[in-house]
Amino acid sequence: MATLLVLASPVFLQADWESLGPYGGHALKVVLDPKDPSHLFVATKNGQVYHSTNRGLRWTSLPFRLNPNAALHAIVIHPEASNVLYLGVAENSAQPLNSGISGVFRSDDEGQRWTLLPATRDWPVLSLAIHPKQPQVIVAGTLQGVFRSENAGADWKRISPLNHPDLKGVVSLALDPTNVQVVYAGTPHLPWRTQDGGASWTSIHQGMIDDSDMFSIAVDRTDTQRVFASACSGIYRSSSRGDLWTKMQGIPGTNRRTHIILQDPVDEKVIYAGTTQGLWKSPDGGSTWQKTNPYPYVINSIAIDPTDHNQLYLATDRSGILKSRDGGLTFQALNEGFINRNIGGFVSEDALYLSSLYDGDFGGIFSSVDAGRSWKLNANQVALKGKNVISLAVSPVNSRLLFAGTYEGLLRSDDGGLSWRPVTGVLPRPTTAAKAARGKILPVSTAARLPETKIFDVRFSTAAANTVYVATAQGLFESSDNGTAWKKTSGLVSAGAVYKVVLHGSDPNWIIAQLSNRVYVSGDRAATWIEARVGESVIRINDLTFGEAPGRILAGTSHGLFESVDGGKSWNRGTSGLPMIPINQFNVSRKQPSLMYSLSLAENQIYRSTDGGEHWARFDDGGLRGLSIQAMAPGASQMANLFVLTENQGVLVYRPSLASGISERAVAKVSE
To answer: What global pTM score does this model have?
Structure first.
């Protein structure tokens, strides 16, 4: 008997972690409840489902957390029982891993609980369609072909030929509303049609340009002979159920890549086309077209309110959910509560700063001055010279001075992240003493320009004024004048890439440099280095941090926690209260160095120590399951405000509920 995969989350766990944004990002599908147009659902390519019960004014994450590799390509709602939803899921992988996250999922309670339909397990589902008049009929398009259920998903039957060379990778589906046996399937090999429920299939591409993708197909509800299709080369219309197609004119070639075509639910002559360059609208069934909004939004999906067809919702690539109240002439972003961004760098000071990746005009450097309750986009990718920021640092004495590490070099801002300029540094003039010593001794560091190379890590020293370190693909660099002049550290870390630099909070002499397979420690401000050999060679070091005592270092590794009390020369296991699980990151409170957290990504667990890492206790991290956590940072409150940075759900803040407050007190008692 097949095992059911049921996804649900206890409500009290979710209450402890609040998503703070910054809202917006990538939205793949948007659908509207046919019985209640104020209720909308949005699916993403990273395994997330959101819903709104107030026409998009506020979005709430639903408990559908498989993992970020789950692409939710399709979501459909039962036309008569709108509490029933279906999701089509495929892994974001060129080679599916059959990990049990792919298939058709069903919810009978508006998305609060989801069940993987057993017959569909490990199907990479790319499209779904439900018949508008016979909703027990559902069709799924997968990488392997087309499947059909006639009993609401309980049983399925393949209706496309097995191992057909072209009828696979079915990215779009459409059903004839008057004939349940007629199915249209769009593939990378143009469109196909069956008129007998799948017994036979016909390639219907006459009149089409040979395309790479057939993104969407729509059947005219008033005349089922008329069919529309959208593709890489533009929009097509057929008056013969696809036997012959005519390419629609009026949309320039730069706008022809069309992800979605949709007929207005009230006026059948009005057709909308969502392209990679914005929204186009035809008032006469596709004969003429006009662009409704000049901004080049990348549109993935469209939903139209049937009770007021001037209200449109768009799911876009980078700007999240957009709404129009005037038939597409103007749009407003409605992303409160919705987030699906790739986060690069994050830093927590008096203000919070983070960077989002690949968001164009809609992302870049964000800041928050109220502990994440609201965010401001300081600089988009244009202001960042087209670069994606992967690391951030803000001066501990001047909150308006920031450095940003990118794939092509370092950027600097002197106005709180509003404007940025590239940093290369200047070569300082050699002193008389330096000239005399030249050629006689090997300097511990050499003056250098900062290379235009990949910047992995940027750190300001809190122990040495105006000092900043940059870990790059060409070594470790230091500046003692806030980035005007730079010198490259020599010795063991002079060659090759340095991926991370760790600085002592109060002693500027102690520095850790992490390379790809080596870790080096300096106790004399990079004049000399020793290699820190932690355990056996199979142990991978993920992160390190200094303790308060001189020479004390903690190492988070693939085999748990290790500790050194002699500056990295020797190591012992540190396991008091911390199980032997992979430790990926430490975070130490600057205001209270004895308070630190450790994060295990493999276990999705956070542990806390209040005595500088001597003893650890499990921190209440309920609600983080299914999230891809990248980093964490403590806030102002010792007990509550812990910030967690995720891969695609932004920043979360820990706000303990009454129930978790009880568990916190119990944990504190155990740690005593």
So the answer is: 0.85
